């Protein structure tokens, strides 16, 4: 006997056409996200193999230089200097044959979400008093919100706005520098350079394993959804879809723990001791010395100029 729901005929385009038209269910959205993640990661590995300016430098030099630059930016208080450093990251991205628009999107995609939560309250005089730029509402004297006293007028302040701009620029500049390092350095060389500069072995090993398992687990999840989609002839209610997703998340966790123990045991049995080994040895060239001296000197200059210790 054929169930009643199998006799129903959907009017309109088929589910695949609906997905292409923009109406995606849980499966379609998840598959789309997984494919986008893989495509972006593969594209990032491709940038690291190109023959650009930063790709030609020793990975240890890039690591030390960018960490030094990030520390300097966190100590800079002038937003114009931050803007200068951010502009330089765009120049180096272009010189490293990285698409500038791709680089900007990769950085600014998450910054508005992060900074919006933290920096937005700074612009109101409720949290940080200052000179008013724009008055939003007048509450009058004696206004309160529960146990908290409010100002007579709620306004956007100049000091708060400048603080929010400086905070956003500082985060954007630091993230841009870090993204530049990851985009222009192959993963294995980056982890080996971390060990070369004295990073504890356990941290490097943990990062390496996390990076490898992200792709492995992503492929497993993609297989789950592909198998489900191939067996589905009618969309389930939203609650049932959510239950299925929750069940797969739990199964993925159990599977990842079991796989981690087996892989680690196999690696140890083959003599793995936690060090990242490459056939290619690092060798410093004259341009590497010039690069690290230039970046360290520029970073020190930024700090001194920002704190008005020196003037140019």
Automatic annotation (TrEMBL):
It is a multi-pass membrane protein. Keywords: Cell membrane, Membrane, Transmembrane, Transmembrane helix. GO terms for cellular component: ATP-binding cassette (ABC) transporter complex. It holds the Pfam family CbiQ. The keyword Transmembrane helix applies. The keyword Signal does not apply. GO terms for biological process: cobalt ion transport. This is Cobalt ABC transporter permease protein. It comes from Methanocella paludicola (strain DSM 17711 / JCM 13418 / NBRC 101707 / SANAE). The lineage of its organism: Archaea, Methanobacteriati, Methanobacteriota, Stenosarchaea group, Methanomicrobia.
């Amino acid at each position: 006997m054929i169930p009643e729901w199998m006799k129903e005929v959907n009017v309109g385009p088929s589910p695949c056409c609906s997905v292409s038209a923009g109406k995606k269910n849980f499966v379609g959205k998840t598959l789309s996200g997984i494919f986008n993640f893989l495509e972006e990661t593969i594209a990032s590995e491709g940038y690291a193999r190109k023959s650009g300016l930063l790709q030609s430098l020793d990975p240890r030099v890039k690591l030390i230089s960018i960490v030094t630059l990030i520390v300097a930016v966190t100590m800079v208080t002038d937003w114009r200097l931050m803007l200068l450093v951010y502009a330089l990251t765009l120049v180096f991205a272009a010189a490293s044959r990285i698409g500038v628009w791709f680089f900007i999107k990769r950085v600014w995609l998450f910054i508005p979400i992060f900074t919006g939560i933290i920096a937005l309250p700074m612009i109101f005089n409720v949290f940080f008093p200052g000179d008013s730029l724009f008055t939003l509402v007048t509450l009058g004297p004696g206004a309160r919100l529960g146990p908290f006293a409010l100002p007579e007028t709620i306004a956007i302040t100049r000091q708060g706005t400048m603080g929010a701009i400086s905070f956003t620029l500082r985060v954007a500049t630091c993230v841009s520098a870090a993204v530049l390092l990851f985009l222009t350095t192959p993963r294995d060389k980056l982890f080996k350079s971390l060990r070369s500069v004295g990073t504890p072995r356990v941290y490097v090993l943990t990062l390496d394993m996390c990076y490898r398992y992200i792709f492995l687990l992503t492929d497993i999840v993609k297989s789950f959804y592909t198998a489900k989609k191939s067996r589905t002839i009618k969309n389930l209610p939203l609650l049932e879809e959510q239950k299925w997703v929750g069940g797969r998340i739990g199964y993925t966790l159990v599977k990842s723990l079991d796989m981690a123990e087996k892989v680690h045991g196999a690696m140890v049995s083959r003599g793995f001791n936690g060090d990242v080994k490459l056939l290619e040895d690092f060798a410093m060239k004259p341009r590497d010395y010039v690069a690290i001296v230039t970046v360290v000197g520029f970073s020190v200059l930024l700090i001194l100029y920002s704190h008005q210790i020196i003037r140019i």
